[in-house]
Structures are given as C-alpha cells and as structure tokens.
Specification:
381 residues; alpha/beta; Beta-Lactamase; Rossmann fold; seven-stranded mixed beta sheet
C-alpha cells in the first residue's frame, strides 16, 4: 500500500456513477423525481426535527424533542442504495474524502428546504449520514430560552468565554446566540473558524468573516494562527479540540481579542482542568497563569426533557472568573470552583443543581429528570 494512502481507505467508483446508478430503487421519489435524502430532509424540517438519521440497513429516523423516532412506512435501504443516496448530496471532493478517511463533515444548503450540518461516514453495515437541521437565521438568547443576562458576557473586549457541555446539548447554538449579540450591536470585525459553517450572519453592525475548516483553511489551529494577522476584534472557534488550538486561543485572548469557543466538558471545574491537562507538565504552570488572566466565563449547559413532553428546557451552570476563581486556577485548586460559584450568585454565577431546582419549581421539568442531570442527586429524591 502506498505510504500516502490511509489503511482504511477504499477504492470507490466516481461519485457521478454511483449517484446515477440503481435506476428504479428507493433513492428517488417516483412522483417528484427528487433524491430520497432531499425529500426526507424537507419532511424533517416541516415536522420540527432537530436531526435526520440515515443508517444503512435501518429505517429512516429523526430526532424530535430529544427523542429518536423511526419514520413510519419507510423501509431500510440496502448498502448500494444507501451509497447512491449519499452520493447524491456530496460533491466530488467530499466523496473522495469519505473514501479516503471514512468520514466527512460538510454543510448543505437547499434554497427551498433549509441549511444543514452533516457528517457522512462508513460503518460495518455500510455508509451512513446524519444531518443537523440549522435555523435559517442565527438564534437570539430569547429564542433559546436563555437569560438575557448572558448578553453581559460579551461586554468584555478581551479574554476567553467558553460554552461547554456534552455532545448535543446546544453549546454551539448558545455560542452563536452570544456572537449574534456582538454582530448586531458592535461595529467590529468578527471572525469565525468552524467545521462546518453553521449559522450565517447576514444582518448586523459588524463585519463578519466566516471560515470553514477544509474549504477555507486546513485546520482550526492554522485558521486561528492566520486570524491573528487579519485584524479581528472577536474570534469564535466552534471547537477547541487540540493543544495547539487551545494555546493559540489563549494567546489571542491574552493579546487583546475576545475569543469564544466550545469544549466537550461537563462543568466549569472540568473545563479548566481539560485545558490545563492538554499541555505537558512542564508547561502547565505558565498555562495556569495565562488562563487565570484570560478566562472571563464558562457557560455549561444541559437540555432536559420538559415535563409536558413538548421539547427540552435549558439548565445552565455559569462561572464568572472573578479574583477568587483566578487564584484557584493559579494555585491548582480548580476542584474548589463549585464552592466559589455557590457564594458568587450576586455576581451572576449559577450552579447547575440550582438551575435544575428552579426548573422543577416552575414545573418545566420533573424531579426524575432533574435527578438524571444533577451533580448532587440526593437533592432531587
């Protein structure tokens, strides 16, 4: 095998050959002649789904109100038919990337349907693809059910603001809402580095430059390094996924930029530890010092099923990096951050369990659901 070919890459026919093959199969609607996936996406959008799941060998599924549900009357596609359906929505370059790497991220915009973030990949049954359905416009804090007080976080002109939580909790959407506050209210240069571009900022006071990893820059780190020479005021990074990106984000925050980013972590203390532990032991002292000076806030969130079954409610944990928090970071005592948050309510700090308790008290969620997400489960017996 040539040195430049990945061990798991596979030879596949040209995308156009696959996309136009298998005449008479279920990948095309007999009445509209529309590709099967495009028809399914339109149906999912019309019925308020958040994601569309297309798994080889299984019926079509969509996620609505946090639950994955099977489309009624849809049969599972064979691997060959699934491959054709996927080929119909990929470009030639994306098709080659899927063959080489086994997966590919890409955006999809359909003028009559909507915008989507997608990931196509191969698994043991054959090819799959999952779509995240994106709103046509960037969200506002009010539309997301988030407190208006969060807008104060972007009053900072420099520093690092992180939106965290597990996969699928809406952290990138919260980041977009915070960025939307900046775009609509400040005459500045906002630069985003995304994979892929999710929300398109068309209206506002700011000049917005949106770069997509793969299409416009090779990596988050490379795009962020270039951003420091592109005169941005605000930089948004959809995922701080490696040490180099984290280091550059800290440098940008330290040198006069407001940096917003997301991390897959469960709470504020874990977020601080995740950043520090990404670096070798000999560098961690300097990283602690830099982070203590640069960090402004951490917003950690969960999406909790509502008691009435109508969607999900947002439970928040908010850390504001005050003097006490800065000292804990420098002194390797980030495990005590939760205690500072309890005493820092007057400064806008919120503990996750308090947010869950408020949702229970208001009737938005029940105790059983609160207990699932709580740090102290005994509180919700």
């Amino acid at each position: 095998m040539p040195a430049n070919v990945a061990p798991h890459s596979r030879r596949v026919p040209p995308r156009s050959t696959v996309a136009n093959g298998l005449s008479g199969d279920a990948t095309v609607d007999d009445k509209t002649k529309a590709p099967y996936l495009l028809r399914a996406l339109k149906f999912a959008v019309q019925h308020g789904a958040s994601d569309l799941h297309f798994h080889c060998g299984l019926p079509l599924m969509a996620r609505a109100m946090g639950k994955l549900m099977t489309f009624q009357g849809h049969k599972a596609l064979t691997p060959a038919a699934a491959e054709k359906a996927i080929a119909q929505v990929l470009t030639d370059e994306q098709w080659e990337r899927l063959a080489m790497d086994g997966e590919v991220d890409f955006p999809l915009e359909l003028s009559s349907v909507g915008r989507f973030r997608a990931n196509a990949y191969r698994q043991h049954r054959g090819p799959d693809i999952v779509f995240r359905i994106l709103p046509s416009e960037p969200p506002t804090l009010e539309e997301l059910g988030l407190p208006a007080s969060l807008a104060r976080l972007v009053d900072y002109r420099t520093g690092l603001i992180l939106c965290t939580g597990p996969a699928g909790c809406g952290k990138s959407t919260t980041l977009a809402a915070l960025l939307n506050v900046v775009v609509r209210s400040r005459k500045e240069h906002v630069l985003t580095i995304e994979n892929p571009v999710e929300f398109v900022y068309r209206v506002g006071e700011s000049v917005v430059t949106q770069r997509q990893v793969g299409a416009h820059t090779k990596s988050f780190a490379r795009g962020l390094r270039a951003a420091l020479r592109e005169d941005p005021d605000v930089i948004a990074i959809t995922e701080l996924r490696d040490r180099e990106t984290m280091s550059l984000a800290l440098t940008a925050a330290e040198t006069g930029h407001l940096v917003l980013g997301t991390l897959h972590t469960s709470n504020a203390g874990q977020t601080i530890g995740r950043i520090i532990n990404a670096f070798p032991a000999e560098e961690q002292g300097q990283i602690r010092a830099t982070l203590s000076e640069s960090l402004r806030a951490v917003v950690s969130q969960r999406l909790v099923p509502r008691a009435d079954g109508q969607g999900r409610a947002v439970a928040l944990e908010i850390l504001i990096a005050n003097t006490a928090v800065m000292n804990l970071i420098r002194e390797e005592r980030e495990y005590q951050v939760a205690s500072v948050m309890v005493t820092g309510k007057g400064q806008g700090m919120v503990v996750l369990d308090d947010s869950l308790a408020e949702l229970v008290q208001s009737g938005a969620i029940d105790k059983a659901q609160a207990k699932r997400f709580a740090e102290n489960k005994e509180r919700f017996k």
